[in-house]
Amino acid sequence: MIDPLFWLGLSILLVATSLTAVLVAAIPALQELARAARSAEKFFDTLSRELPPTLNAIRTTGLEITDLTDDVSEGVKSASQVVKQVDQSLDGARKQAQNMQVGTRSIFVGVKTAWKTFTRQKPARRTVERLPINETSPLTLREREALRQENRRSKTEPYRTNDTYDEASNWETDFENEDFVSKPTASDDWYEQE
Q1: What are the CA-CA distances from residue 92 to residues 85, 86, 95, 97, 105 (Å)?
Q2: Residue 130 Ramachandran class (φ > 0 left, ψ -120 to 50 alpha, else beta)
Q3: How is 67-114 classified by DSSP, letter by letter?
Q4: Rounded distance between C-alpha atoms, residue 144 and residue 140, angstroms
Q5: Please, which residues have CB within 8 angstroms of residue 175's CB and are 6 or more apart in sequence?
Q6: Which of 171, 182, 186 is nearest to 140 (CA)?
Q7: Directed axis angle between helix 141-156 and helix 165-177, to 10°?
Q8: CA dist., res. 115 & res. 124, Å (int)
Q9: Along the 194 residues of the chain, how does pLDDT read in single tens digits?
């Protein structure tokens, strides 16, 4: 009987010794757990104090970023409108410049033409002495030919600006003094038949 009690006492002693060894070994671990718990408590206190303002700052930063994005988009829209207005004003200025160029050319051409007109020497006009209607005599063949030659000259040759009245009258007298013999043509026959 001693044997079972011995083994029972021995087993209880071994259990107590092992529990004591476990407790001795667990004391530093428990101390570390306590320190960790205190650190966690301090961390959670810090989080509870610092987290709401940080979240508020993050929220306000997000709102400010949204506002800035809206402002930038409005600025881009206004810049595009300004660019469109500048483009339209440039088109208008280009059209006005073209109109002014055309107007300037027109004025320049008009002034140049007016200057040429005013500075041009006017040809001397011949005064034509006309007979009253009842005193006119029928034209002879030579007079008709002279008028025809004069009409041809006025159509084909330009008038000279240096001719004066005296030169023109000398030309007519020189023409009458020449011996002018013309061959009859079909048009002369037609004139004679009238």
Answers
A1: 10, 10, 5, 8, 20
A2: beta
A3: HHHHHHHHHHHHHHHHHHHHHHHHHHHHHHHHHHHHHHHHHHHHHHHH
A4: 6
A5: 146, 149
A6: 182
A7: 140
A8: 20
A9: 568 888 888 899 999 999 999 989 999 988 999 999 999 999 999 888 888 888 899 999 999 999 999 999 999 999 999 999 999 999 998 888 888 888 888 888 888 888 888 887 766 666 555 655 555 566 777 887 888 887 776 544 555 555 454 544 555 555 444 444 444 554 444 444 44
Which tokens is 145 given?
A: 């030919």
For 1, 126, 128, the CA distances from 147, given in Å and listed in that order, are: 184, 15, 14
Report how far residue 80's alpha carbon sits from residue 91's, in angstroms, rounded to the nearest whole number. 16
In which element (H, E) is residue 178 found?
A: none
Q: Mutual orientation of helices 141-156 and 186-193 as an angle, nearest 10°?
A: 130
Chain centroid to CA 108: 27
CA angle 29, 35, 36 (to 5 degrees): 90
Give CA–CA dist 73/90, Å, rounded.
25
Three-class DSSP category at 129: coil
CA distance 89 to 107: 26
Identity of the residue numbered 177? N
